[in-house]
Amino acid sequence: MNKRLLALPVIVFALACITSVPAKAIAPAPPANTEAFVVLRGFGYGGDGKRALRALEPVIAAEGMDLHVPDYISRSGIDDSRRKLHRYFQDTLSRYERVHVFSFIAGAWTLNPLVASGDMNTLATVIYDRSPLQERAPRIADERLHFLTWLRYGSPVFDVARTPYSPLIDLNVRIGLLVETAPTSFIKKRERIARSYGAFRFDCDAFEQRYDDCVYVDLNHTDLYKHFVDVWPDVRAFIRTGRFSSTADRTPPDADPFATQVRQ
């Protein structure tokens, strides 16, 4: 008998086995998250911040959110940084139904005018990192360390120093303020200069920004990058409810900020 004819039943049987595999044996692809958590880093973002956010990424994913840390800051200035951020929102974040942003200081100067343009309809939450201490750093860097600052960062530091803050006023976006109460080593070393710019106001209304809730953290700007996991429960609470946790500190500090100990 022809060997090809002998092989035919075997082939038919094998095909029957393959086609009889139950559909449930093929696992469906997991659904894509519909929410994004975006961290708009500032000038102080470095290795500690990267490691802290990388360690927190599984926790954020468990909340049904994808973590994004866009590389948006341009050496040429805030205008180009804004254009880069706008492209990132259009190209990378447009698939999400809801976008939640945690914005460090440079991020606020970059993001707010974009929101005012009305082209960011999926933006649901913005939590701002604010600091009456660290927000004087760009001016000090511009006036006292201009060349060295330009070598390291380019022009955006100068733009932040010279551009008045433009608050986000969109009533459809939940806004939270997280206020640092301790100075960084940069500000401590330049305490006299920082004080010369005027009194330090920690009350929430001093930031000239509409907000739904406002809390204080005993961290300086460097600490906040390094210990972002410590503020994540409050960040999560605000994203989900529009309020920080009931245990968060809502009382402005009344002590001299330069007496605050920096966390190690």
Q: Any idea what the radius of gyration is? A: 25 Å
Distance between the termini: 85 Å
Shape: globular
How much of the sequence is in beta strands? 5-15%
Task: Give the second-level CATH assignment, the architecture.
Answer: 3-Layer(aba) Sandwich
CATH topology description: Rossmann fold
Give the class from helix and strand content and strand pairing.
alpha/beta
- Main β-sheet, in a few words? 6 strands, parallel
Q: Uncertain regions: pLDDT < 50 for 5+ in a row? A: 1-25
- Strand arrangement, largest sheet? 2-1-3-4-5-6
Give the C-level CATH assignment. Alpha Beta
Describe the structure.
The chain is of the alpha/beta class and 264 residues long. The chain has a single domain, classed as 3-Layer(aba) Sandwich (Rossmann fold). Helix content is 43%, strand content 14%. The protein has eleven helices and six strands. The protein has helices at 3-19, 47-62, 78-91, 105-116, 137-144, 146-153, 156-162, 185-189, 191-196, 221-226, 228-241; strands at 35-40, 65-68, 98-103, 123-130, 174-180, 213-217. The protein has a six-stranded parallel beta sheet, with helices on both faces. Helix 4 links the parallel strand 3 (98-103) and strand 4. Helix 5 (137-144) packs across helix 6 (146-153). Residues 1-25 have low confidence and may be disordered.
Secondary structure elements and their pairing?
Blueprint: H1 3-19, E1 35-40, H2 47-62, E2 65-68, H3 78-91, E3 98-103, H4 105-116, E4 123-130, H5 137-144, H6 146-153, H7 156-162, E5 174-180, H8 185-189, H9 191-196, E6 213-217, H10 221-226, H11 228-241
Parallel strand pairs: 1-2, 1-3, 3-4, 4-5, 5-6
